[in-house]
Amino acid sequence: MQPEVVCLGEPMLEFNQVRGEAYYLPGHGGDTSNAAIAAARQGAAVGMLTALGADAFGQSFMDLWRDEGVDASRVIHNPDAHTAVYFVTHTDAGHAFSYLRAGSAASRIGSQDIPADYIAPARIMHVSGISQAISDSACDAVFHAIEIARENGTQVSYDTNLRLKLWPLDRARAVIHAAMTKCDIALPGLEDAQALTGLDAPDAIADFYLGLGAGIVALTLGAEGTLVATAEERRLVPSIPVKPVDATAAGDTFDGAFLAELSRGRDPFAAAAYANAAAARPTQGYGAVAPMPRRAEVEAVLASG
Is the pLDDT at 244 greater than 80, yes or no? Predict the structure, then answer.
């Protein structure tokens, strides 16, 4: 299968604490893998580029992607490294993440591991700040993948996904801004963008990313919705009101659904309305992947609104 949307980044096995309980539910995470699955559940042809350990956790991802219809034919299996793991703990202050990812197979990816023939025919390639933060070699690999995409007319999508446990703000700012100058679709979250740009107002942040070169900016604002901006127009696309339980992968679900709709030829405002509806669903269940909706569920939510 030749994917329409290719996602590049680090998958992580998830252990998510059930609120008020002492046990954790196993699952799958990693921002770009989540986005890939979300896009596939909306009917897009999706492929994943990454590396896994030759371990049970890595095999569980291969099984997951097979079951979800995500092409994993170009995934690297590294017998000398492990598949990354993270834990989500819930308190009254919100959810906190703990990671076991240093030296993971995905963090050992380099530019030499990026398959140009897989990226070139795709419509969209999706990466994130985390894809670049996990190691210097992974950072270089993402820049290399971006250049391949640009040379072949593949649109580049970038979610800032700022994780200051992985790198200092100054380096994150320099790398993410440099990547954003080469991207077509900017997918920042408000809190990340405020830290990275030093700006507070959503419109100013949208202007900043448009100024770096993005053709589409979709700035997610939580319960306020999504500010979608192009050079010609901008609109605040309202969110779907819900009572959240766990927001672990809401942003990744938005990304996947948004990119799936763009790949179907929808305009960014309609794509954002759809993606907002898709992203509301995972906040009402635990874990990253299990609560992600499929197209029929999203369309039912939109029809009822």
Answer: no
